[in-house]
Structure formats: structure tokens, C-alpha cells
Amino acid sequence: MQFLLKNFVDTSSTVYSDEYKAYRGLDKRLKSHKVVNHGAYQYVDGDKTTNTIEAFWSFLKRGLI
């Protein structure tokens, strides 16, 4: 994860994710890290959501198949 952050993510970025433990601490390295708690059936909280990236991966997979 450290390699990806340093090489592919600008430090002025805002990252939206779920509560997966590997994402903890991103707020210390980036401008902002916003989290939705899928474990508590939370998928949208104000402007926090992961629905758009999940839809992207879904469309990509369908296109490849």
C-alpha cells in the first residue's frame, strides 16, 4: 500500500473507501480520507460514498466478459 500511495496518489487527493483495515492512516498521508462503513450497512453518508468506483469496476468487468 505504501508503494502505491507514494507512486500513484497525489498527496493533495481525497480518497473514499470502506472501513477495510489496510486503509487506516490514509488521512495522515493525504489531504483527506473519507470512509463509509459497509459492515454497518452504510453505503452513503453525505458526500462519502464508494458507489461510483464500484459501478466503474462492475462495468469494466462486464465489458471484458
Task: Tell me about this structure.
The protein is α+β, with helices and mostly antiparallel strands and 65 residues long. It has one domain (2-64). It is 38% helix and 18% strand. The chain is built from 3 helices and 4 strands; from the N terminus they run H-E-H-E-E-E-H. The strands form 2 sheets. A two-stranded parallel sheet has the order 1-2. Strands 3-4 form a two-stranded antiparallel ribbon. A hairpin with a 2-residue loop joins strand 3 and strand 4. The termini are far apart. The mean pLDDT is 89.
Ordered list of secondary-structure elements with their pairings:
Blueprint: H1 2-8, E1 14-17, H2 26-29, E2 32-35, E3 44-45, E4 48-49, H3 51-64
Parallel strand pairs: 1-2
Antiparallel strand pairs: 3-4
* Count of separate DSSP helical elements: 3
Mean pLDDT across the residues is: 89
The biggest sheet, with number of strands, parallel, antiparallel or mixed sense and barrel status, is: 2 strands, parallel
**Secondary-structure element order, as H and E?**
HEHEEEH
Poorly predicted parts = none
Overall number of domains: 1
Helix fraction bin: 25-40%
Cα distance, first to last residue? 28 Å
Beta content comes to 15-25%
Q: Largest sheet, order of strands side by side?
A: 1-2
Q: What is the overall shape?
A: globular
| Radius of gyration (Å) | 13 Å
Structural class call reads alpha+beta
